[in-house]
Design brief:
With 75 residues, the protein is mostly helical. It has one domain. It is built from three helices and no strands.
Length: 75
C-alpha cells in the first residue's frame, strides 16, 4: 500500500504490455486525439470566444455549432 492507503496495480515489465491492454490503449489514443482536435478547433471559433450565455444557453449553442459543423463536413 502507498501513503494514501490504496494499493497499486501489479507492474509489468517495460515493453511488455498485455495484448488486450495494448489494443485498448491504441483505441483510446485515437479517440482522445479526435476529441482534443475537436476542442482545439472549437476554441478558434469567434462565436464561442464571445459567448456570454448563462445556464443551458452555452449547451444549446454548442449543440447547434456541432450540428452545423457536422453538416458542413457531410457536404
Amino acid at each position: 500500500m502507498n501513503r494514501s492507503g490504496h494499493s497499486a496495480p501489479p507492474r509489468t515489465r517495460p515493453g511488455r504490455t498485455p495484448g488486450l491492454k495494448e489494443e485498448h490503449n491504441a483505441s483510446h489514443r485515437k479517440v482522445r486525439a479526435r476529441v482534443e482536435h475537436a476542442f482545439a478547433r472549437m476554441k478558434t471559433w469567434k462565436i464561442l470566444r464571445d459567448c456570454r450565455l448563462k445556464g443551458d444557453g452555452v449547451h444549446h449553442a454548442m449543440l447547434g455549432i456541432a450540428r452545423l459543423h457536422n453538416l458542413a463536413l457531410a457536404g
